[in-house]
Amino acid sequence: MLGSRVDKRCRCCFAGVSLAAWLLVSACTKAPEPPHPPAEKTPEADRPEAVPPAAPKASYNLDIPTVEYRWDQGAGDKSVPPELGGPGFTGEGWQTNRKFLAMGWKEAPKGGAMIQYLPDWPATLRQTGKDWNTSVNYLIRDLCYESLLNIHPITLEHIPNLATHWWISPDKRTYRFRLNPAARWSDGKEVTAQDVVASFKLRMDPTLLDPSNIMTFGKLETPVALSRYMVEVKVKEENWRNFLYFAGASVFPAHQVSISGTEYLERYQFKFTASSGPYLVRDEDIEMGKSITIRRRKDWWDAANPAWAGLWNLDAIKFIIVKDENLAFEMVKKGEIDYFIIPKAQWWAEELDKVGAVKRGLLLKRKFFTDAPIGTSGIAINMKKPPLDDLRVRRGLGHLLDRKTLIQKLFFNEYQPLSSYYQGGLYQNPANVLAEYDELKAVELLEEAGWKEKNASGYRVKDGKELKFTLNYRTPLSERHLTVFQEACKRAGIRLELQYLTPAAGWKNLREKEFELMSTAWGALVFPNPETSFHSTLADQKDNNNVTGLKIPRVDALCDAYDQEYDVKKRIEIIREIDGLVFNEHPYILEWYLPCQRVVFWNKFGMPEWGGLRTHDYEALFYCWWVDPEKESRLEEARKNPRSFLEPKGEVENRFWEAWNAGQAAREKAGNQATSH
Amino acid sequence: MAAYFARRLLLMIPTFLGVTVIVFAITRFVPGGPIEQIIVRMQMGGGRGESAGGAGVETSVAIPEAVKEELKKHFHFDKPIWRAYLLWLGDLLSLNLGKSYTYGLPVLELIAERFPVSIYFGLIGYLLAYLVCIPLGIAKAIKHGSAFDFASSALVFIGYSIPGWALGAVLLVLFGGGSFWNVFPLGGFRSASWEQLNLFEKVIDQLHHTILPVFCYALGGFATLTILTKNSLMENLGQDYIRTAFAKGLSERRVIFVHALRNSLIPICTGLGHAIGLIMAGSYLIEKVFNIDGIGYLGFTSINERDFTVVMGILVFNTLLILLGNILSDVLYVLTDPRIRFQ
Amino acid sequence: MAETAHPSTASAAPPLRRAPKPLSLLRRRWRKFRALKRGWYSFLILTGAYALSFFLPVLVNSRALIVKCDGRYYFPAVGKFHEAKAFGQRLVGEADYRKLKRQFEEEGRGNWVILPPYPYHPHESLLTDPELPGNPPHPPSRRHWMGTDDRGRDVFARLLYGFQISITFGIAVVGLSYLIGMAIGACLGYFGGRIDLYGQRLVEIWSNLPFLYIIMIIGSLMKPDMSILIAILAIFSWISISFYMRGEFYREKSKDYAAAAISQGESNLSVMFRHLLPNGLTPVISFAPFSLVGAISSLVALDFLGFGLRPPTPSWGELVNQGLQNIFKWHLVVFPLGAMFATLLLVVFIGEAIREAFDPKSHSRLR
């Protein structure tokens, strides 16, 4: 459900592999024509370069109401004693979280539909096993399945879901969860501790062909059902992340998944097990290769809980398959798709403003500045290949990428240069100084490193060897900015050869450290995990994410400390220090990022003041949206009359969370001062 | 001659085996095989999975050996290549093409679903090309060197220099209703509401969805076919038998359409046989642009994703069609030109 | 069959001319070719343009032709690399000659720079050029006749350099693949029987191999350069022409003149090349122009998939691809496709003229 998405969303996805993905952050194929008529442009497009996070234009009501999570203390099988979670269980000595910030607007009407698009039919619709991790399956997991606990998408604290209470032993090696006896599967059966055990066993079955499961959950012992409503799990080593993952794993019905991995793969490839969440996919809602519809359940067991008021309002979310992005964009303009993520800066800055429906206010442009974690895109430098082991050479390369010009000229100032491996959030080290574009400085560094001589073609030589690197990239789109980098390298006396590799081949070379320079884009986590990318034990091994061969002893020590640290504030400090250390080692030539969620949608949706929840990205923004019947009928009218306008169009930028964060910081400061006095 | 063709049919077997053996071997050695694909997909998160999202859980550490073994077993990569091939061949003889690595569905089912779509567009496209190009080629041959000849050449060459899918993209923008005129649907094979339509509406709906893609399918073929018809006819028109026919006092019409044309169609007939394979091949990019689920798209994505069972399945179909097409070509040769004798 | 026109009859006739016969035949064809104005002019234009393209470094280049600086002369366009520092420019790497020209003019110390007529290099991204405000692709202007591409490189310069590369590529691929295809097709058609049967099997096997695979494998094992791409494309594109050649040879061989030549005891090679080939050339001549454009299109496709000539090579494939990516930037669509279309038309006209010149009959059309 809600929370699990946030925490299980993992880092080190490799967006360079998926073309569509790569577009959004780092490359955009379309480029603009020059003298734009300024009159036609929106204020955003005309913004000066390198925009600092501007002060919010609109004033927001930052008071998010608090809601209460309710559970029925008397529910459940009377034969289970209260101390094992049966009726009368009080939760004494256990942890829970009953009061938290609201996630939806409680008056939100239910109903309506939203049509989105998918570029490919997913390989499977299963919820685990080989190939399951596609974006649509994540969405289905969020909406149709539930886990023991949720992560609150604003505060990132644990909140109840299937389990009402949880307990961590003093040695932090045993976790217990107490399930809500009211929880039901969509086929009417009770959700019990056995379901948790069966789901775990299924995930650990190697014939599921999903090694990531085994690597994640292999750090835990098989859980034990203490009773119908209580489950216990022991961990093999202390690490706060184990709790996060176990509590966040979606639970499947034991009566359907107590089968071998092979059988599960076979049976549920394009078929759903019973689920317990607020949405459901029926067999008839799957049109192979064409569409899939996720429908809201009227009989969800926890529908009446005020904690979820205003969430999950849409009756149906339909995904249609459109293979070509340009075609999908046309379908958006025509109104056949309701909600669309704008993948290219040029579309946002130039194309959209030419669209009639946008001019008339029927199709709305919106940028949501949420705190969704920002991935890292850049050129990985393999430090194992001399002379890239020389920090001066790496720094020199860093000074040759003209981010400012590229962002301005190629990407319409839509992006901002990355200056951290944990950009944008609390974890970013504010002391990192971006290596600005400076060819003279680069040359100075290269000469310092001994590359002084030049041959007849103008390339640097040392001991008869030319200064020459191969830069691999895996999407033809990145070629656009890489050739500009190539020119800068040439001026500085570096021969840079660009070579395309297929995504799979490139990925293999990357993981086996068989490259010199490679264009990459990594995903980000709400809860960072630095060990997997920066720990030195991985530097000399193959097949891991420390692809650059980074070795910093202090980072290793910090990584170990991080895993043992349950205090979020201290964890933030640790990550900041790691960020600073890694940044100064220059294992990547960092590129740029999109600081917001950039979408268009037809003007029929209502949403809370905050637009989408704080840590949500475009794939989850609409969880708290609804179809406004009044807007919908006005839209219908307006579509019939091509001269009509829908006013007002509203602010394009929603910076609620920036304002909210600032407010929080001020409140905290005030709180600190109050205590110190 | 019957013996010749019987032998040809028998000789399809070694060719077929040769092709499948080589491609099967390639599937074993091409980098980024299905196991790596799985690992990549696991690590990157699919679809729109973005730098900001989407990967699986912890995939940082090396994949455990046990899982790798399991994967190898699943894809028969644990067996020596010849055994794996024989297993595949054995399955093929019982008409089992295996299951798609990606979708887990029977390959035969995947192909069977897309086959009618590809055949539909392919056949109509070819029909259109022949209907346009043969008359055009004849007219050009008769009026060789005229302004008409020049202008029509220019036209078909423009068609030839513009890739069909690029034109498709432009046509969809112009006539799809998203940006300019709402004349045609935005891609797809049929409307979503197809099932609710009556027969007449179904025909209209199908045609409505057919016009743009078929035009783009056929466009590239216009030039070659037209020029081939023209050149072939012109060569025949210069032959002695034509002179003889004229000398006998036959009408120009009769000479051209009865005497010359039959002979000029010989090279075109060869093309017809080979075209059978092409009809099936479809076009990845046109199918992508028009959002059509055809063999071309399946074939390309399966190669890209190393879905080798599907690759082999399509290969089987394509090879058989091409081989039969070659034989058909020879039959057509004999039928159109009695002087040819196959021994 | 056309006795009078056939070379074999000419050889049977008493030698009237002293010149060796094949030459006279060629010369006759050449004369006829020149007489066909449309083809002849097309030929002149195309070969002229191709020859001219070898002088591009002095016509279209950002490197100056001559620099006179403090009494010394430099020839950067044809000579070696000069550091910006050598001319007192505070820049990294090679001198910026356009800037240098302005600088010298401002200084007025008697130093001067002569730039090529079109002073832009096809690899240059003019992103920071003060004369090009706004975002690329820029529309055509006085300085940039065909505008710039998606990263601010001059389209005209890229098109010209690309012309040379594409034509070279196309000719090499067509030449090589036709050589292979004609040889194999001719052998199969001429000898027939067992050779044909076994040969056809091998051709069929070959033709069924998925081309994309091979490219992917090679692309992941090595860095494909132009000659490798040519070789790969050629060995995968000879098949259709071999089918046609085989058909033609089958047909021609069954004609009387072939039987006559064979019965006169001419060797197989002689019959094949001197008698059958000239009469079986129709498909070759008809398809050659298309194959040339087909080869260029294949390069487009390979570039699209990322397996083409390596960036920043100014190939036409890359240019056409940019047009397709930026379908509403008319100059990126029109100019590359227009160039391809014009080249194709010229090649086809040449092809038609060659065909007619090769046609032994003087009246190959009615009226």
Explain what this protein looks like in three dimensions:
Chain A is α+β, with helices and mostly antiparallel strands and 677 residues long. Chain A folds into three domains: 197 residues, Dipeptide-binding Protein, Domain 1 (Dipeptide-binding Protein, domain 1, Alpha-Beta Complex); 179 residues, no CATH class; 218 residues, Dipeptide-binding Protein, domain 3 (Roll). Chain A is built from 21 helices and 29 strands. In chain A, helix 1 packs antiparallel against helix 3, helix 1 packs across helix 6 and helix 18 runs antiparallel to helix 19. Chain B has two domains: 92 residues, no CATH class; 230 residues, MetI-like fold, CATH 1.10.3720.10. About 5% of the residues of chain B have low confidence. Chain C is mostly helical and 367 residues long. In chain C, strand 1 and strand 2 form a beta hairpin. The N terminus and C terminus of chain C are likely disordered. Chains in contact: A-B, A-C, B-C. At the A-B interface, helix 2, helix 3, helix 5, helix 9 and helix 16 of A face helix 2, helix 3, helix 7, helix 11 and helix 12 of B.
CATH topology of the largest domain in chain A: Dipeptide-binding Protein, domain 3
Task: Work out the helix count of chain A.
Answer: 21
- Oligomeric grouping of the chains: heterotrimer
Q: Helical segment tally of chain C?
A: 15
Main sheet attributes: strand count, strand direction, barrel closure of chain C: 3 strands, antiparallel
The CATH architecture of the largest domain in chain A comes to Roll
Write down the domain tally of chain A.
Answer: 3
Keywords summarizing the entry:
heterotrimer; B: 343 residues; mainly alpha; MetI-like fold; 2 domains; 13 helices; C: 367 residues; three-stranded antiparallel beta sheet; 3 strands; elongated; disordered N terminus; disordered C terminus
Describe the structure concisely for a colleague.
The complex is a heterotrimer of chains A (677), B (343) and C (367). Chain B has 343 residues and is mainly α.
List the helices and strands and how they pair.
The complex is a heterotrimer of chains A (677), B (343) and C (367).
Chain A (H helix, E strand, L loop, with lengths): L1 H7 L10 H7 L40 E3 L30 E3 L11 E6 L16 H10 L4 E3 L6 E3 L2 E6 L5 E6 L13 H12 L6 H7 L6 E4 L2 E5 L5 H9 L5 H4 L3 H7 L11 E2 L5 E2 L3 E6 L19 E6 L3 H10 L4 E3 L3 H7 L4 H4 L3 E6 L7 E6 L9 H8 L4 H9 L4 E2 L21 H10 L4 E2 L5 E3 L2 E2 L1 E6 L5 H13 L3 E6 L2 H9 L5 E6 L8 H4 L18 H12 L3 H18 L2 E3 L1 E2 L3 E6 L2 E2 L19 E2 L1 H12 L12 E2 L1 H21 L1
Parallel strand pairs in A: 3-13, 15-29, 21-22, 21-23
Antiparallel strand pairs in A: 1-2, 4-5, 6-7, 7-9, 8-9, 10-12, 11-12, 12-13, 14-26, 15-26, 16-23, 16-24, 17-25, 18-19, 19-20, 27-28
Helix pairs in contact in A: 1-3, 1-6, 12-14, 18-19
Chain B lengths: L1 H28 L4 H11 L20 H10 L6 H13 L13 H36 L4 H15 L2 H12 L23 H39 L2 H8 L4 H30 L2 H6 L5 H10 L3 H29 L7
Chain C lengths: L6 H6 L8 H15 L1 H17 L2 H4 L6 E4 L2 E3 L22 H11 L4 E3 L40 H37 L1 H15 L3 H11 L4 H12 L1 H15 L2 H8 L4 H12 L2 H24 L10 H10 L4 H29 L9
Antiparallel strand pairs in C: 1-2, 1-3
